[in-house]
Amino acid sequence: MVTRRSVLGGAIGAAGAGLLTTGGLVPLLSAQSAQATEAVTVPAPFTVRMPTLPVLAPISVLGGQDTYAVTIKEVAREIIPGVQTKVLTYNGSFPGPVLRARSGRTVAIRHRNNLGMPVSVHLHGGNVSPENDGGPMDTFGPGTSRTYTYPNQQPGAALWFHDHAHHMESEHVYRGLSATYLLSDENERSLPLPAGQYEVPIALRDARFDDAGQLVYVMDDVFGRTTILANGRPSPYFEVAARKYRFRLLNSSNMRFFQLRLSDGGQMIQIGTDGGLLERPFTTDTVGLSPAERADVVIDFSRYPVGTKIVLENTLGPGTPDQVGKVLRFDVVRTASDPSRVPDVLRTLPAMAKATVQRSIVLSMDEDGREEPRGLMDGQQWDYQRIDQTIAHGTSEIWTVTNANKIVPHNFHMHLVQFRLLERNGAPVAPSEAGLKDTVRLFPGETVKLHATFGTYRGTYVYHCHLLDHSAMGMMANFRVR
């Protein structure tokens, strides 16, 4: 059970200054300024192989619906070589498995809760009815089951599902309750992008271990979680052929922001984000991900001779470069034919409807060093009985969202809808934010303006900071579409 303990008070001051500035996260800390070390010996980088995530198989495909059975349970899995670590899982997989769905085809997942505490499963980025949204108070208890039905009446997107039981979501997700849900559509399947074994989902996150190799959970432990995991293994290597790969990147961390680059400064082609493919690809040498954000990137390894080893680096702290700077290494081990390519046009997004309502939302958190800082949305902690925003069904709105903090970063996630970013700090958004989004980063003092249309389901949903430790502290609010 989450206790709402926090290390924020101790972080603010000299240590806090090493983490954040009003401009956002700073580069990696030096070894002398690092705040935490692991009590167990984490293997040297690139000594373990990165596994590919298992793909869920349906138990039925009858009646125009794919039906899955998932058991939520605690198991022991090897994260650090030779050590069995207790984790919370969907079907025993850490991190969770991949479910591949198709737009227009319904998916039903029957979850059996074999834990000793209630859970709620939220399809992050999914356009679903309130009873299938997995809201913070809509939980099901130990020894019971719950079926969630997803009509998938939305374009292809890189979704994911995770626990959302309030005051427990932070610890449950940290201990492993998250999984990938890749929704494809006809347009995406018609494109000659890398596919099959050359399309690789990668779940990134951080962790902290005790001297027995068990996960340590302390709320808001931003300095303590200094082991980086890729698909559940610490700084692994991954063997690739000298050809193009499509990597479906998910930041499944509770708190950590990533800024990713290749160690040789090489280029990547970003083709998608949270809500699916961008209209046009763009070439970049860096990819940023706040917690819950996704990026769809293509890396062409044909430019490297066999035997080359390229590191995917993270350039953001907290932590030293040795702790958090080495995410994974790509080892080019063979040649391969490559019929894939990245088209100049990937999709066409519909025109944005005229917005008839404008709202302003302010995210904040106590920064005065108190023992239990509060997370606030428009100055209030979340109350599940309070409706904070009422929205007319079928309308479009513009929301201006601000991070009022001077030290602490946040991000912003809305249930039910994918939105379009219009501005960041009054300026046009970067290409990486030009597509459909459901989560957007907000460094201290930043403001974004977004456009959302509420034309599908009626009911009550939440919006919140997706630094899950913050939402567990109350940085969440309700909106009702009626």
Task: Please characterize this protein's 3D structure.
The chain is mainly beta and 482 residues long. The protein folds into 3 domains: 160 residues, Cupredoxins -  blue copper proteins (Immunoglobulin-like); 128 residues, Immunoglobulin-like (Sandwich), CATH 2.60.40; 125 residues, Cupredoxins -  blue copper proteins (Immunoglobulin-like, Sandwich), CATH 2.60.40.
Helices and strands in order:
Layout: H1 8-11, H2 14-19, E1 20-21, E2 24-25, E3 65-78, E4 84-90, E5 98-102, E6 106-113, E7 121-124, E8 145-150, E9 157-163, H3 169-174, E10 178-184, H4 186-190, E11 199-207, E12 227-230, E13 233-234, E14 237-242, E15 244-251, E16 258-262, E17 268-273, E18 276-284, E19 287-289, E20 294-300, E21 309-314, H5 321-324, E22 326-335, E23 357-365, E24 375-377, E25 389-391, E26 396-403, E27 410-414, E28 419-424, E29 436-437, E30 439-442, E31 447-453, E32 459-464, H6 468-472, E33 476-481
Parallel strand pairs: 3-6, 5-10, 11-15, 14-22, 23-26, 25-33
Antiparallel strand pairs: 1-2, 3-4, 6-8, 7-9, 9-10, 11-12, 12-13, 15-20, 16-19, 16-21, 17-18, 17-20, 21-22, 23-24, 26-31, 27-30, 27-32, 28-29, 28-31, 32-33
Tally of alpha and pi helices: 6
Helix content: under 10%
CATH topology category name of the largest domain: Immunoglobulin-like
Which radius of gyration do the C-alpha atoms yield? Answer: 21 Å
> Percent of residues in beta strands?
35-45%
- Characterize the biggest β-sheet: 7 strands, mixed
Describe this protein with a few key phrases.
single chain, 482 residues, mainly beta, Immunoglobulin-like, 3 domains, seven-stranded mixed β-sheet, six-stranded mixed β-sheet, 6 helices, 33 strands, disordered N terminus
